[in-house]
Design goal:
globular; two-stranded antiparallel sheet
Length: 479
């Protein structure tokens, strides 16, 4: 019976690492009591989200609320990832940010990027049709891919090209003519509250209030309403029609399915290789494609299918994905409980994620970030391990103090304490972590070298040092 319970806990811990940012011992216990399928539903349909209040953030960090600088949107977002009780919508917001990659270096205003993040969050689990339509109207995306310069009789193909290549279908599923016809359909889709200057290089207002109120505006006089032929269909299409045609393509369903599989199950090659490299699990992709069409392009339905599938629940799928820097930082902050209120340290935590290779709202290109082991090199790996071990071993953090209290109380209540039992207690505290035998042997040997007498300061520090060692394991760095 104990083995069955352990297996259940490990499975739910796997779910919470992939569908969120990991789980504390208390969160894992609550999810285990609910059961796996009920936990999936709770993740997909969170009730009464609790998180650090926007009002508190505004009071302590007016610069994070104003979103005027390049870092503020990401710092504010990190607060939410670290404190929300609804982790899946936040994880999916990060997922879409990686696909619809939009950066400050061209948009040059944090609020537009923060507005885009809120849009992703609002539509993250709904219909892909709705999400693509909202993306097409998003001011940050319009500026990022130059659709304000896409005019009747003088098209700009940037948005149309990336909509097909990187956002929905992938190379090999459309023609150059489709790109041009797509661009024609999106002429006149622009933004309001921009001050047009006589000089083209000065067309954007540099005054703060000129950009704060950016919003979508359709210019009918600038829209090409002539007949178009797109993906084999003919008509006087506008942007709404183009999105509808894109969403019903089997190539779109496969493209989104492969992205979801790569993000939640197992790393796939970078997107440019997809036309030449088949999926690692074609049957899994087919299953997700079927869910896409069966549920009117619903991303939430695809995720429900994914999380309940054997290919996700398989023990072989665990600890195979390297956490992105932001996933790692957010997960650690949830364990340490550092941000029970706004603190200046959020600026440092955001910077630490950037040292590991990921700056929110500033992807390296329109392709976003490459995932998997691409996150790891000799420099970033040192940053990751140093960050995790320092934070998890910091006895000044409220979450770590609570861990030490629980471990000390449990070991003190036991008739005998062994190094193995102490290692198990530490692994349980960071989210029911399972480690390889070689790793476990190192932890047990380290555990055997300290004193674990109840209430002893040396014992408490030894437990903190053991937690620090756990945070440095490869399993902790993975999901």
């Amino acid at each position: 019976m104990q083995d069955t319970q352990d297996t259940k806990v490990e499975l739910i811990a796997h779910l919470l690492r992939r569908a969120g940012f990991g789980a504390s011992r208390a969160e894992l216990a609550a999810a285990t009591a609910r059961g796996y399928e009920a936990t999936v539903e709770e993740l997909l349909n969170p009730q009464e989200e609790q998180r650090l209040s926007d009002y508190l953030v505004r009071r302590f960090h007016p610069e994070l609320s104003g979103m005027m600088g390049p870092q503020a949107p990401g710092e504010n977002w990190l607060y939410r990832m670290a404190t929300t009780t609804a982790p899946l919508p936040e994880k999916m917001t990060l997922f879409w940010h990686g696909i619809f990659a939009t950066g400050y270096n061209k948009v040059i205003h944090g609020k537009a990027l923060s507005d885009q993040t809120r849009m992703f969050r609002r539509y993250a689990l709904g219909s892909f049709r709705t999400l693509l339509l909202e993306l097409s109207k998003d001011p940050a995306m319009i500026i990022w891919l130059d659709n304000q310069d896409n005019h009747k009789g003088a098209i700009n193909e940037n948005f149309g090209r990336e909509l097909l290549e990187l956002f929905s279908m992938g190379v090999g599923n459309y023609t150059e003519t489709d790109i041009k016809e797509c661009a024609r359909a999106f002429t006149g889709w622009s933004i309001a509250n921009r001050q047009y200057m006589e000089l083209r290089s000065q067309r954007d207002s540099d005054w703060p209030y000129g950009r704060i109120s950016w919003h979508f505006e359709f210019h009918p006089e600038d829209h090409d309403d002539g007949e178009k032929v797109f993906l084999g269909e003919r008509g006087n299409f506008n942007g709404d029609d183009i999105v509808e045609i894109i969403c019903k393509q089997p190539a779109t369903a496969r493209f989104i399915a492969r992205h979801l599989y790569s993000f939640f199950v197992a790393d796939e090659p970078p997107v440019p290789e997809w036309p030449y490299t088949p999926p690692a699990d074609p049957q899994a992709i087919a299953t997700l494609v079927q869910a896409y069409f069966d549920h009117d392009y619903s991303i939430g339905a695809m995720l429900r299918t994914l999380f309940n599938a054997d290919f996700f629940k398989s023990p072989a799928a665990r600890y195979t994905k390297v956490k992105s820097p932001v996933e790692l930082v957010a997960g650690v902050l949830r364990l340490t409980g550092e941000f029970d209120r706004p603190r200046y340290e959020i600026l440092e935590r955001h910077s630490q994620a950037s040292y590991m290779g990921q700056i929110l709202n500033n992807p390296p290109s329109v392709e976003g970030w490459h995932q998997g082991t691409d996150w790891l090199d000799s420099g970033t790996l040192v940053e990751r391990i140093n960050f995790a071990s320092q934070q998890i071993g910091d006895t000044d953090k409220p979450g770590i103090r609570a861990m030490l209290d629980r471990i000390g109380a449990e070991l003190g209540a036991a008739k005998a304490t062994s190094p193995e039992r102490l290692v198990d207690a530490c692994l349980e505290e960071v989210g029911a972590l399972s480690v390889e035998e070689d790793t476990r042997r190192v932890l047990v040997n380290f555990s055997a070298g300290g004193q674990v007498e109840k209430g002893a300061a040396a014992a408490r520090q030894h437990i903190a040092d053991l937690l620090r060692m756990v945070a440095a394991t490869q399993e902790f760095q993975r999901a």
